[in-house]
TrEMBL record:
CDD domains xrefs: F-box_AtSKIP3-like
Taxonomic lineage of the native organism: Eukaryota, Viridiplantae, Streptophyta, Embryophyta, Tracheophyta
Protein name (record): F-box domain-containing protein
Pfam family, one: PP2
Superkingdom classification of source: Eukaryota
Length: 289
């Protein structure tokens, strides 16, 4: 009845129902042609076009569209991060799953795929690092915070010999990667919903620079150093870059952060994590060094 009334109203007012267009539109594009278009786009663009019409929506699920978006060693990554459940997943579902945070080693590491560069990102909690004096409450404490994806950071009150190290082995896809330490001078908390920070223990970082280093299993080495100066803000301190080529099934990286000049103490430092990500990866956090 509503349809008949609407038709009567338009005819009564001298208007006519629209006639179908004599020219084909995007909705008439064969699914195979739509898929050929999508494979040249970025993953974000594919998902946007997939909402345009039925043809592009169906084409956006074609496996061959996502083959070039997945890392060259994605089968190894899938086995490590997803497991056998990936056998019943489409390539798009695998890609989506890899882009999420995938916990490793009991949640002390997170791995995800950067959807813009196609490289792997790896975050290592302070719980998984070798920290000199970490078991002595006179020097270090573990504190809970919402400002870490691991919900816990290591807080240094005061120490003479500062040394942090770690090691990770992972099947990184070929590419260039950067390694950073995520640090903050001062201890933060919330009061009445506002973020405040305590600089009570901050001292000694402007006397001698902190040294950052990394080594890889194929002989690469990088070293940087800088003073820690900016307080109350999380910063990424660059340790160096390394390259992974197609011949490496797995790459082992050792890294360290030291300030072992025992002529003075240093303290008031929060250590959150170590980050490894593609050089092209765009970080929102400010970067130092």
């Amino acid at each position: 009845m509503g349809l008949n009334f609407s038709l009567f109203f338009r005819l009564h007012n001298g208007s006519h129902p629209p006639s179908p267009s004599p020219f084909p539109g995007l909705g008439d594009l064969p699914e195979s042609c739509a898929a050929d278009v999508l494979k040249y786009l970025t993953p974000v663009e594919i998902c946007v076009l997939g909402k345009m019409n039925r043809a592009f929506r169906a084409a956006s699920w074609a496996d061959f569209v996502w083959d070039s978006k997945l890392p060259s060693n994605y089968s190894v990554l899938v086995q490590r991060l997803i497991g056998d459940v990936a056998l019943i997943m489409s390539k798009r579902e695998i890609y989506t799953r890899l882009c999420r945070l995938n916990p490793l080693d009991g949640g002390n590491k997170n791995v995800w795929l950067d959807k813009y560069s196609g490289g792997i990102c790896l975050s290592i909690s302070s719980m998984d690092l070798r920290i000199t004096g970490i078991d002595d409450r006179r020097y270090w404490n573990r504190i809970s915070t919402e400002e870490s994806r691991f919900h816990t950071v290591a807080y240094l009150q005061q120490i003479w010999w500062f040394e942090v190290g770690g090691e990770v082995e992972f099947p990184f896809p070929p590419g260039s990667y950067s390694l950073y330490f995520r640090l903050q001078l001062g201890r933060t908390s919330k009061r009445f919903g506002r973020r405040i920070y305590n600089l009570e223990h901050v001292h000694g970082w402007n006397i001698k620079p902190v040294q950052f280093q990394l080594w890889t299993s194929d002989g690469q080495h990088a070293k940087t150093q800088c003073y820690l100066e900016e307080a109350g803000k999380w910063t990424l301190h660059h340790a160096g870059n390394f390259n992974v080529d197609a011949r490496n099934e797995s790459t082992r990286i050792k890294f360290s952060m030291t300030q072992i000049d025992c002529t003075h103490t240093k303290g008031g430092l929060c250590l959150d994590s170590v980050l490894i990500f593609p050089v092209e990866y765009k970080q929102r956090s400010s970067q130092r060094c």
